[in-house]
């Protein structure tokens, strides 16, 4: 019965997440999750029996990992691309998580059609990083939509997060360090105070290429900068911490 959820004739495959027996349906011709999604899911905190929403959820990797990494009671993923959202929904069903996770196929700007204002404990997002559209040859490709701000942008992501979050609700994001000033400005404009950041480096002596951010809605001003995380200790060899995050 489970195998019927995977459409191999369309190029889909079933990937073992090596985490509590969880699997994910993916299609390499569309978009496969990267280490940024794994790092985000490890950084996110959800209170016991809390409600979490993952914006721009893509394949549903973050909600599925959060189902075992946190004690959230309910997790919602929102994805605008119908075929990707359908694949995420089937992954949820494959893992028998339908009572805990639901996937909404819509623009994140319409989130309040499905979720009450100010009722969410945690909002997380791995959004499109890039503003530059000049290099995009086909803006309809799922990969372009996932990486470039074609269907949403930074301001929209943080604005809807603010509307969904309860007072003192937590916001988590992974993004590029080059846009950190924009991110902080938008968070503050939306009453989400940056509280914790951690820079991600390919190697410990290289520049940071990602940053994990935690914010708290309606909080006072203070910020913790955690020790940096290096992904590789040498070429194609993960550091011990990354291996631990992957559960290996």
What's the helix and strand layout?
Elements: E1 13-16, E2 23-26, H1 35-43, E3 51-55, H2 61-69, E4 74-79, H3 82-94, E5 101-105, E6 120-125, H4 142-147, H5 154-164, E7 165-175, H6 180-189, E8 192-201, E9 208-217, E10 224-225, E11 229-230, E12 232-234, E13 237-238, H7 240-245
Parallel strand pairs: 3-4, 3-6, 4-5, 6-7, 8-10, 8-11
Antiparallel strand pairs: 1-2, 7-9, 8-9, 12-13
What does this structure look like?
It contains 7 helices and 13 strands. The chain is globular, with a radius of gyration of 17 Å. The two termini are 29 Å apart. With 248 residues, the chain is an alpha/beta fold. 26% of the residues lie in helices and 28% in strands. The strands form 3 sheets. Strands 3, 4, 5, 6, 7, 8, 9, 10 and 11 form a 9-stranded mixed β-sheet that branches. The protein has a two-stranded antiparallel ribbon with strand order 1-2.
Low-pLDDT sequence parts = none
Mean pLDDT: 91
Report the sheet with the most strands, covering strand number, pairing sense and barrel closure. Answer: 9 strands, mixed
Overall, the morphology is globular
Helix fraction by DSSP (H/I, runs of at least 4): 25-40%
| End-to-end Cα distance | 29 Å
**CA gyration radius, whole angstroms:** 17 Å
Number of helices: 7
Let me know the number of strands: 13
Percentage of residues in DSSP E strands: 25-35%
What is the string of helix and strand elements?
A: EEHEHEHEEHHEHEEEEEEH
Structural class: alpha/beta
């Amino acid at each position: 019965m489970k195998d019927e959820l995977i459409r191999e004739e369309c190029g889909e495959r079933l990937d073992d997440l090596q985490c509590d027996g969880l699997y994910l349906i993916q299609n390499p011709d569309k978009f496969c999750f990267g280490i940024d999604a794994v790092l985000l899911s490890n950084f996110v905190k959800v209170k016991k029996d809390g409600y979490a929403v993952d914006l721009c959820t893509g394949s549903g990797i973050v909600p599925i990992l959060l189902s075992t990494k946190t004690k959230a009671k309910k997790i919602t993923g929102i994805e605008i691309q119908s075929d990707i959202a359908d694949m995420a929904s089937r992954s949820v069903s494959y893992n028998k998580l339908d009572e805990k996770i639901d996937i909404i196929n819509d623009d994140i700007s319409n989130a309040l059609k499905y979720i009450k204002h100010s009722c969410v404990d945690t909002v997380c997002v791995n959004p499109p990083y890039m503003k530059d559209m000049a290099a995009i040859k086909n803006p309809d490709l799922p990969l372009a939509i996932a990486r470039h701000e074609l269907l949403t942008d930074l301001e929209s992501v943080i604005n809807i997060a603010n509307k969904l979050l309860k007072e003192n609700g937590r916001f988590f994001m992974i993004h590029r360090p080059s846009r950190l000033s924009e991110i902080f400005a938008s968070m503050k404009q939306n009453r989400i105070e940056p509280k914790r950041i951690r820079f991600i480096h390919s190697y410990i002596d290289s520049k940071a290429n990602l940053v994990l951010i935690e914010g708290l809605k309606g909080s006072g001003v203070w910020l913790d900068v955690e020790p940096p995380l290096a992904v590789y200790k040498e070429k194609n060899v993960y550091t011990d911490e990354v291996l631990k995050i992957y559960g290996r």
